[in-house]
Amino acid sequence: MLELEHTTKTHDESRQGEALDMLPTGKSTGRKLYIESYGCQMNFSDSEIVASILVDNGFETTKDYKEADVVFINTCSIRENAEQRVRNRLKEFESAKAKNPGMVVGVLGCMAERLKSKFLEEEKLVDVVVGPDAYRDLPNLIGKVDDGAKAVNVLLSREETYADINPVRLNSNGISAFISIMRGCDNMCSFCVVPFTRGRERSRDFHSIVKEAQDLFNAGYKEVTLLGQNVDSYKYTAPVAEGETPQPTVNFAQLLAMVAEVSPELRVRFSTSHPKDITDEVLHTMARYENICKYIHLPVQSGNSRVLELMNRTYDREWYMERVDAIRRIIPECGISTDVITGFCTETEEEHQETLSMMDYVKYDFAYMFAYSERPGTLAAKRYEDDIPEDVKKRRLTEVVNKQQEHSLYRAQNFVGKVQKVLIEGFSKRSDQDFCGRNDQNTMVVFPVDERFKRGQYVHVMVERCTSATLMGKIVD
Ligand code: SAH
Ligand code: SF4
Ligand code: F3S
Predict the structure, then answer these.
(1) Contact 223, 266 (CB under 8 A)
(2) Which residues participate in [4Fe-4S] cluster 2 binding (predicted)?
(3) What is the CATH number of the domain that holds 94?
């Protein structure tokens, strides 16, 4: 975790440097691939697509970059320190490359897209730079490097969704998997680099999404998370030939229902919801299906309407509160989490207080909290001065983190004395005498192993105690 990033639980944007675990091998050429991912769940999901493409091209995989022929790092640009982390990691690859000059080092993902060929000048050990929409070109690009050239493909696409690629599940527990349902983002929040690194928003064919969920369920998976930067704007219309009747458009609520219909035994989660777009139809669909988890990640960013306007979030404080009220009305037991940015351009002390009072209003189950980090090329970088001193940003961040700590504890305490349905994910981090898994609201639950049950099964757990991040109890089935 970096000094300016604080979460009350592990956040995917803070997941760092997870290497892939194990890959089935295709028609092997004996060349070894190592891939490491940073950033959000979308990036981890993309690494599974990259692995699939390369395994189909004869690669085997390794967990040790020192023995790899191809070393890929799938990068994130969301905050400056995310990029710094990647640069530091690249330094560590230098000695491996010195020992094995034939080793191909590639930078994938958002930083590749942001810096393009500049990367090759800045980091001499890098041979190949590939943006998020160009992964099908990887075998060809590696071929160019083998022939002694450097290779770059950072073309963004309006169509690419990798819908036909069957991702190789990396680091999988065999129980939970991510499914990308869309790519890119059209929102242009002024602080955010994602629209520049990921391109225009496009939705993936729902047939391929439902099929992927069905295939995962058939393979023993019990939980899928549908991924997109703004899942509520999912919209897919099947293309039709001239003269044919147009197919109806499928929206996110309808997609959610289709995935939930795969099996009542398959839990369905999704991320991220945008407050401007989340509809009552989605909320009613969640309420209707027992297997759609009652948990919504609804990033607020700021509790003040003027700051929200500068951020170009296109909702205000009142709108956000009304959406929270709607969630509480339609799904009373729903968990809600958020993202907060402190010290955005021109944010006053009073405006910061409004973020704190918004937190009091919602009492989030979890939050991912960040000090504002100016990103080159964004609307905010062009229009506004990054004028809040670093120490003020950090102090405000600490206040937000401390408040969230109280609220996480408050929410956790509400589960004490209640029975929770938990999907067993495996042994707890601390001990193989304990199982762990999450309840519907995404809170981690730890309980003693019971021989009658195993990973991938649902159990009912009576919660007896808690910390702000974990519920503890025992199985009552
Ligand atoms: N699509 C999601 C967010 C993706 S980025 C959404 O709209 O909610 C994840 C989080 O990183 C954002 O919600 C925001 O809180 C944070 N973030 C993005 N850009 C940032 C920046 N320049 N400085 C600090 N935090 C940032
Ligand atoms: Fe970034 Fe806003 Fe798009 Fe989220 S919705 S990815 S914050 S531009
Ligand atoms: Fe980072 Fe790109 Fe995701 S910037 S947060 S990896 S979309």
Answers:
(1) yes
(2) 185, 189, 192
(3) 3.40.50.12160
What CATH number is attached to the domain comprising 233?
A: 3.80.30.20
Ligand 2 centroid to 193 CA: how many Å? Answer: 8
Q: pLDDT digits over 116-164, tens only? A: 999 999 999 999 999 999 999 999 999 999 999 999 999 999 999 999 9
Identify whether 57 is part of a domain.
Answer: yes
Distance CA 37, CA 33 (A): 13
**HSE on the CB side for 283, CA within 13 Å?**
21
Q: By residue range, what is the domain housing residue 30?
A: 8-153
| Ligand 2 pocket member 274 (CB < 6 A) | yes
**Both structure tokens of 465:** 């105690």
Report how far ligand 1's centroid is from the alpha carbon of 100 (Å). Answer: 38
Reported as a single tens digit per residue, the pLDDT across 17-58 is 555 544 444 466 789 999 999 999 999 999 999 999 999 999
Give the separation between CA 199 and CA 228, rounded to whole angstroms: 13
Which atom of ligand 2 is nearest to 274's Cα?
5
| Ligand 1 mean position, distance from CA 78 (Å) | 7
Residues forming the annotated binding site for [4Fe-4S] cluster?
Answer: 40, 76, 110, 185, 189, 192
d(Cα 135, Cα 44) in Å, to the nearest integer?
A: 14
pTM of the model: 0.93
Q: Give nearest CA residue, ligand 1 atom 1.
A: 229
SS3 label, residue 28? coil
